[in-house]
From TrEMBL:
<protein>
    <submittedName>
        <fullName>Pentapeptide repeat</fullName>
    </submittedName>
</protein>
<dbReference type="InterPro" id="IPR001646">
    <property type="entry name" value="5peptide_repeat"/>
</dbReference>
<keyword id="KW-0677">Repeat</keyword>
<dbReference type="Pfam" id="PF00805">
    <property type="entry name" value="Pentapeptide"/>
</dbReference>
C-alpha cells in the first residue's frame, strides 16, 4: 500500500505492522489502538487523524504531517519523526522514549505526561509546546537552540523549569547549547 487516499477511513484496531503507507493520506481518519509498529509512513498526511493508544514503535514518519492529530497514549518509542509537522498535535501521555524529532515542528503540541527519555529534539521548533498541564508560558526555539522567554514566569512555569533542571528531560537531546542556559535557569 503506497500513495493511497484513505482520508476519513476507520482503521481502528487494524494490524498494519510493517505496512508501507508512504505518501498515504490518512487525514481525518481513525487508527485507534492500531498496530503500526515498523510501518513506513514517510510523507504520510495524518491531519486531524485520531491515533489514540496506537502502537507506532519504530515507525518511520519522516516528512510527515501529523498536525492537529490526536496521538494521546500512543506508543511512539524509537519512532523516526524527523522533518515533520506536529503543529497543535495532542501527544498527551504518549511514550516518546528514544523518539527522533530532529528538525520537526511541535508548535503548540501537547506533551503533558509524555515519556521523553532519550528523545532527540535537536533543531525542533517547540514554540508554544505544552510540557505541563497548567503551564502558562512555553519554550521557544530560535537559531538552533532552546531558550526561555525573557519575562516573569507564573508559579506553574517554575515547576517546568525545575523539572528541566532536575532531569525531567533526562538524556533528552535538546541541542548542544542547552547547557549554556542552565546558569540562567538556576538564577530564576
Amino acid at each position: 500500500m503506497s500513495q493511497l487516499n484513505l482520508r476519513g477511513a476507520n482503521l481502528d484496531y487494524a494490524d498494519l505492522e510493517e505496512a508501507i503507507l508512504a505518501n498515504t493520506n490518512l487525514s481525518e481518519g481513525s487508527l485507534k489502538k492500531a498496530n503500526l509498529s515498523y510501518a513506513d509512513l514517510v510523507g504520510a498526511i495524518c491531519f486531524k487523524t485520531t491515533i489514540t493508544e496506537a502502537n507506532l514503535s519504530h515507525a518511520i514518519l519522516i516528512n510527515s504531517d501529523l498536525s492537529k492529530a490526536n496521538l494521546e497514549q500512543a506508543n511512539l518509542s524509537q519512532a523516526y519523526i524527523t522533518d515533520s509537522y506536529l503543529v497543535d498535535t495532542n501527544l498527551g501521555g504518549a511514550n516518546l522514549e528514544e523518539c527522533d524529532f530532529t528538525r520537526s515542528y511541535l508548535t503548540g503540541a501537547n506533551l503533558t505526561g509524555t515519556n521523553l527519555q532519550g528523545a532527540d529534539l535537536s533543531e525542533t521548533d517547540l514554540t508554544g509546546t505544552i510540557f505541563y498541564e497548567h503551564q502558562s508560558c512555553a519554550l521557544n526555539h530560535k537559531q538552533n537552540e532552546i531558550f526561555f522567554e525573557d519575562q516573569l514566569f507564573s508559579q506553574n512555569y517554575y515547576l517546568v523549569i525545575e523539572d528541566l533542571v532536575s532531569g525531567f528531560l533526562e538524556e533528552t537531546a535538546l541541542s548542544s547549547s542547552y547547557e549554556d542556559h542552565l546558569p540562567y535557569l538556576e538564577r530564576i
